[in-house]
Design brief:
This protein is an alpha+beta fold. The protein folds into two domains: 3-106, Rossmann fold (3-Layer(aba) Sandwich), CATH 3.40.50; 117-292, Up-down Bundle (Glutathione S-transferase Yfyf (Class Pi), Chain A, domain 2). Helices cover 43% and strands 21% of the residues. It is built from ten helices and 13 strands. It has helices at 36-48, 56-59, 123-137, 139-159, 170-206, 225-234, 236-242, 263-266, 269-291, 308-317; strands at 3-11, 14-20, 25-29, 67-73, 78-83, 88-92, 95-97, 108-111, 212-217, 253-258, 261-262, 296-300, 323-327. The relative contact order is 0.14.
Length: 332
């Protein structure tokens, strides 16, 4: 799918904005504060169903009562989202939906300046990052994660009440055990997929013989539901004291090894850039392999962080995709 245009009304600081996209590469040029990232955010909402950085009340332009975004593909298909201050509605072929239907979603590879700090981010940021990537690979992952998070929220609410009994948590324990085990197995599988390509892709960018590995770190020593359930039940007293669930895949982390050392301590800024670029290239490749779709590439002010070699690598590796770039300066 190729995006033909995206139109914004009362979205962030845009009263009205229209971007007509090129088949291959489109550049959104403007100073900081112009609202370039907002255009990528609007595209993301209409292809993924949600923002990558905010809730609808935050997106609505101050002093207005609604926002509207319209996306048109080259094949004539259109997707529109309207938020009236209370509810967001997607409009597709004269039908209305509260959520973007699965069949109308389209894969995106998103590159944000903050991604270049991924290796040094807190574990929760890395989990969020890889959850977003793995959800692109597998719809089952996304739906399982959503069910897990809802159950975790309910269980944590109960744990805030000192009068909660062990049996009050049983049904939530079962749900967490089922989806926690499934998610952990998928995380391990997808991490292996990334690792099978990570070093070779990194070397193609850096032009050296360094080794890079992604390590999936989890509390789960045995990947089965009964063991997961047992751990939750054993931690009941502790959880009740602290008021939240202390065991589970919501504590998972991903560590980067660079030449058998933690990359956070050993990789230079340039080497870190190459690792992140390699991840993005592999993400696009795996989406194509698993879905037979060329993802749309959204690059937010990334070139300002990249030298000439990395810019050329970015351009060459995404030559088969539609790319939409934001920048404060012209890109040669």
């Amino acid at each position: 799918m190729i995006i033909k245009s995206i139109k914004l009304t009362n979205f962030r600081n845009h009263s009205s904005f229209l971007l007509k996209c090129e088949d291959e590469t489109s550049l959104i040029l403007g100073d900081n504060g112009f609202g370039k990232t907002s255009v990528l955010e609007a595209i993301y909402i209409l292809t993924q169903g949600k923002s990558f950085r905010a809730t609808d009340p935050d997106i609505l332009k101050h002093g207005t009562e609604f926002y509207r975004i319209e996306l048109e593909y080259q094949n004539g298909e259109k997707t529109t989202a309207t938020y009236d201050g209370k509810t967001k509605t997607f409009h597709i072929l004269d039908q209305k939906f509260k959520r973007l239907p699965k069949k109308n979603k389209y894969p995106i590879v998103l590159f944000l300046p903050s991604d270049l700090n991924l290796i040094s981010h807190a574990p929760s940021r890395r989990r969020d990052y890889f959850d977003r990537i793995f959800s692109e690979f597998d719809e089952n992952y996304s739906s399982s994660l959503s069910k897990y998070e809802k159950a975790l929220k309910q269980r944590n609410e109960l744990l805030k009440n000192e009068a909660t009994l062990r049996e009050d948590l049983f049904s939530w324990n079962l749900i967490l055990s089922k989806y926690g085990t499934l998610i952990s197995n998928l995380r391990e599988e997808f991490t292996k997929d990334l690792n099978s390509k990570l070093t070779s892709t990194y070397r193609s960018i850096s032009k050296n013989q360094d080794n890079v590995d992604l390590i999936y770190q989890t509390e789960l020593k045995s990947k089965n539901e009964s063991t997961y359930l047992k751990n939750l039940e054993q931690n009941f007293e502790k959880d009740l004291i602290v008021g939240h669930t202390t065991f589970g895949i919501h504590h998972d982390d991903y560590l980067f090894n660079f030449n058998q050392n933690l990359a956070n301590n050993s990789a230079s800024r340039g080497e870190t850039r190459s690792i992140i670029l390699a991840l993005k290239f592999i993400e696009a490749e795996l989406i194509f392999q698993k879905q037979n779709l060329r993802p749309i590439i959204l690059l937010d002010d990334v070139f300002s962080e990249l030298d000439t070699i990395h810019r050329e690598s970015l351009t060459n590796n995404f030559k088969d995709n539609q790319v939409i770039i934001t920048s404060v300066e012209s890109i040669k």
